[in-house]
Design a protein that fits this description.
868 residues, 27 helices, alpha+beta, five-stranded mixed beta sheet
Length: 868
């Protein structure tokens, strides 16, 4: 092989051995020369290596110094000077969250201890925050509380102070009302995405696409919704593309009288029509039908147009869909009408073809979109909005308007004629003046229209009227007819006493017991006024009456979360002398086991459940209570009585006895209906509502949910996939500050124990906390307690999804034991169903490891023997 230097050696297909590198005419760095010399020595000492192996080894050795330099740069990241942003403590939750995120990014670049993180963050406090933090630390020191020493604890304290409790609720409300408006598609999506991140909205991509599409401007949404998308970003990109094309086409077009409004744009998709009998036919003005105009004098059309009135600009000679005036009529809350300029909307999108008229309406992205520009008042949500969507009528796609202000249902004359729908004479013909300016219009026909929106099918009787706004208008009659159980969900429970059902609350005193006569509690004038106001409200409803009872207990006011007051009766004296009745209260585990195989869920929450049960006649005097103004007694079951829960469960079990354990579970005022299919579920739901109507029991619509694949029930999220923890309660555990007393440890331990079925070896993990809350124990908090506290938080934050039981599958048990406790997991086909754990004590502590594992198996079998 030639030893001559070749400047093109690097491109040669056969590479030279490393020992020939010195002959290359290539400039090298000093460190590369030293590395090359070492490579040469290695090659000279080992002539038996293959050429390819020599080349690979030499290449790896040449790369090592670069990797070491790169690692050295990463290690030196902490030497880079990073400034911690200051925080002034403004009343702006987003400003605080931004500061928190920035400072955590700084902490990630440095290996700071937790104590140092707290000190560094406090250094950057200024203005109000500095004074507040100094006062907080001083107050904790004076009260003997442990100082804040971790960033997690400091962050929880800061969030409680600078993020109000209503912040997330307002975020969700803002997200629900968010629309594009005058913003670009890009800005609208960014604002929606930021709001979803801030509100911690967890939803699938289909729901996000529906949310995004519902807020888009109508001219963009009408084109975007015709396509199918797998991801949200695909829909966003298409919307941006449509927006650009509409702007480009609008700028190139100039003034045109063929412009159509949103109404015309929506309705023109339903049919491809020629000139018809109606002056409001749904024709496309920029595509005149040449054949139908042959042989007709143009003066006829001109004379006819003179009689047409535009309801957009109130001018004559054209209809609203052909209005050249770029104005929008805005109806204000006080009834006044304003007009404001708007951009011209393109009459036809470049994406629309005749084939688009047959687009199917099936799919998950079907939505109802707002059509009328109306300024609603705050918190009114959808109260003053008119909506439109699409439906199938006779296999054709039609535009349907949902208008709660319309006193009748209307079908377009054109739709009836094109689909050849059979009509009948109107039983009460009437006249309309507002539809055209050429005189009165008589409504003499009706038609029964069968339509489908997605999976929903219905029939509606409509008046046949020529209109260009849409093909079908569903007004108040349609909405009212579908409110079959409106009386079960009233805004307020009707005034008066509930009926006697045979199950009333009874109070039986122990024979010989002294009748209590307790004095009223003292209170300030403000509390006295509020207390008497609530008593007067109960008197007006008929729930209480004046009394001459020898038995009397006091009442007091308890503050609620929203700042109002709740009246509570102190029934302890009466409960002491009351005979206890032991009606069974359902076990939560047993109710969850009944949900196996369910896929559709509905939850019904009764309104003021206790007050829907009468007191037994003759026992009213035993419920008497005192105020400063008089003595009153209850006619309905009050809160606080010892046997009240048993009475309520007796009534619910009796009322729903035909459904319990079949498709319904009841826990006091919470009713959960579950089914395996939507068809069965609708039937089950109607059966339950009919019983509630029969028994005069009222539900709270705001707390109910219907026909859902996922529902929150008694602190758990139940779905067809299984059982999950409620994220709202988990958030409370995540934000729980370090306990400083035994009471606080008991509160945390109790809440965490509620979800112990989701945590493997919970008893072992929580053992240090259990030691703190032992009887006659003083409070202490060491590293063991801190580790247990943090570990429980982490486990519940990442809690697994537990499968619902399926008794047709095989159960498996896996056990384990340690020096502190035992644990087991029940599984089906590899999916966990439940976890069991127990802290060991006594003689079991002295067992050998094998014996402890056997003991764990025995305890697991005892716990789950009803499954096995």
């Amino acid at each position: 092989m030639s030893q001559e230097s070749d400047p093109n050696m690097e491109d040669h297909p056969v590479r030279q051995p490393v020992r020939n590198v010195p002959d290359l005419n290539i400039r090298e760095r000093p460190n590369q020369q030293r590395e090359r010399r070492r490579d040469q020595d290695d090659v000279v000492n080992d002539h038996s290596d293959l050429e390819s192996g020599q080349d690979s080894n030499a290449s790896n050795r040449r790369r090592e110094p670069r990797h070491r330099d790169r690692r050295r740069e990463d290690d030196n990241l902490k030497n880079i000077k990073l400034s911690i942003p200051p925080f002034q403590g403004r009343s702006d939750p987003e400003a605080y969250l931004e500061w928190e995120k920035k400072i955590e990014l700084v902490f990630d670049c440095h290996n700071y201890s937790e104590n140092k993180k707290v000190k560094l963050a406090a250094i950057e406090f200024s203005d109000y925050t500095m004074i507040w933090w100094d006062q907080l630390t001083t107050s904790r020191r004076r009260n003997g509380e442990q100082p804040i020493s971790t960033w997690t604890e400091m962050k929880a304290v800061l969030r409680r102070r600078f993020i109000p409790s209503y912040y997330h609720r307002e975020l969700h409300q803002k997200l629900q009302n968010l629309t594009q408006g005058t913003k670009s598609v890009e800005d609208y999506y960014k604002e929606m995405e930021i709001a979803m991140i801030r509100a911690d909205v967890q939803e699938d991509s289909v729901a996000t696409m529906a949310r995004f599409l519902a807020g888009l401007n109508l001219d963009i949404a009408n084109v975007v919704e015709l396509q199918h998308y797998l991801e949200v970003v695909d829909m966003v990109h298409m919307a941006i593309k449509v927006e650009k094309q509409l702007k480009r086409k609008g700028s190139n077009r100039g003034f045109s009288t063929s412009n159509t409004s949103k109404w015309g744009q929506s309705s023109s998709r339903g049919f491809s029509t020629s000139q018809g009998k109606d002056s409001m036919a749904l024709s496309k003005p920029n595509k005149p039908n040449i054949e139908t105009n042959k042989g007709k004098a143009p003066e006829v059309s001109i004379n006819r147009n003179r009689d047409v009135k535009c309801f957009k600009c109130l001018g004559r000679g054209h209809i609203a869909s052909q209005c050249p005036n770029r104005r929008t009529m805005v109806i204000r809350a006080d009834g006044e009408i304003e007009t404001e300029d708007e951009e011209e909307k393109e009459s036809e999108s470049v994406f629309e073809t005749e084939e688009d008229l047959e687009q199917p309406v099936e799919g998950e992205l079907l939505i109802v979109k707002r059509s009328l520009s109306l300024q609603g008042m705050e918190n009114e949500l959808q109260r003053e909005n008119i909506f439109h969507t699409r439906c199938l009528v006779g296999g054709k796609v039609c535009c349907v308007i949902i208008d709660g202000g319309s006193y009748t249902n209307v079908a377009s004359t054109m739709m009836v004629e094109k689909l050849s729908l059979p009509t009948t004479k109107h039983p009460s013909p009437y006249k309309l003046q507002w539809l055209n300016d050429g005189g009165e219009l008589k409504v003499t026909k009706q038609v029964l229209v069968s339509f489908t929106i997605g999976k929903y099918s219905d029939k509606v009787l409509c008046d046949v009227v020529p209109m260009h706004a849409g093909h079908l208008l569903l007004g108040r009659p349609w909405q009212f007819d579908r409110r079959d159980f409106k009386d079960v969900f009233p805004e307020e429970v009707p005034i008066g006493l509930p009926p006697l059902r045979g199950i009333e609350h009874q109070i039986d005193f122990i024979l010989g017991a002294a009748i209590p006569n307790c004095p009223a509690y003292r209170g300030n004038p403000e509390e006295t006024t509020e207390l008497q106001r609530q008593v007067n409200d109960l008197l007006q409803k008929g729930y209480v009456r004046d009394s001459l009872s020898p038995c009397a207990v006091p009442i007091l006011l308890v503050p609620k979360k929203d700042g109002t007051w709740q009246m509570c009766v102190d029934c302890r004296a009466v409960n002491k002398i009351t005979i206890k009745y032991r009606h069974p209260i359902p076990r939560l585990d047993d109710m969850l086991d009944e949900l196996s195989g369910a896929k559709v869920f509905s939850k019904i929450d009764l309104k003021s459940g206790y007050h829907q049960i009468r007191m037994r006649e003759g026992d009213e005097w035993k419920t008497a209570f005192k105020t400063k103004h008089g003595l009153y007694e209850w006619l309905v079951m009050p809160f606080g009585l010892t046997n009240a829960p048993s009475t309520f469960m007796r009534l619910m079990n009796y009322v729903l006895r035909s459904f319990i354990s079949k498709f319904c579970v009841v826990y006091f005022d919470d009713i959960l209906i579950y089914s395996k299919s939507i068809e069965d579920h609708v039937r089950h739901l109607k059966s339950v509502l009919e019983v509630l109507r029969k028994e005069t029991l009222y539900a709270n619509l705001k707390k109910c949910s219907f026909c859902s694949d996922k529902v929150v029930f008694l602190g758990f999220v139940v779905s067809a996939e299984g059982l999950e923890v409620d994220q709202e309660k988990i958030k409370a555990i995540q934000d729980w500050p370090r306990p400083t007393s035994i009471t606080q440890v008991q509160s945390f331990h109790g809440l965490a124990s509620f979800y112990r079925r989701f945590v493997p070896n919970f008893s072992t993990i929580a053992a240090p906390l259990t030691n703190v809350i032992k009887k006659n124990s003083t409070f202490f908090w060491n590293d063991e307690q801190e580790k247990s506290f943090v570990k429980i938080k982490n486990f519940l934050t990442n809690a697994p999804l537990l499968a619902l039981l399926d008794f047709s599958k095989i159960f498996e048990i896996e056990c384990d034991a340690s020096g502190v406790g035992i644990g087991a997991v029940l599984t089906q086909e590899g999916r966990p169903v439940a976890y069991f754990s127990e802290k060991i004590s006594g003689a079991v502590l002295n067992y050998l490891v094998y014996d402890k594992e056997m003991y764990a198996l025995i305890r697991a079998l005892e716990t789950w023997q009803h499954y096995l």
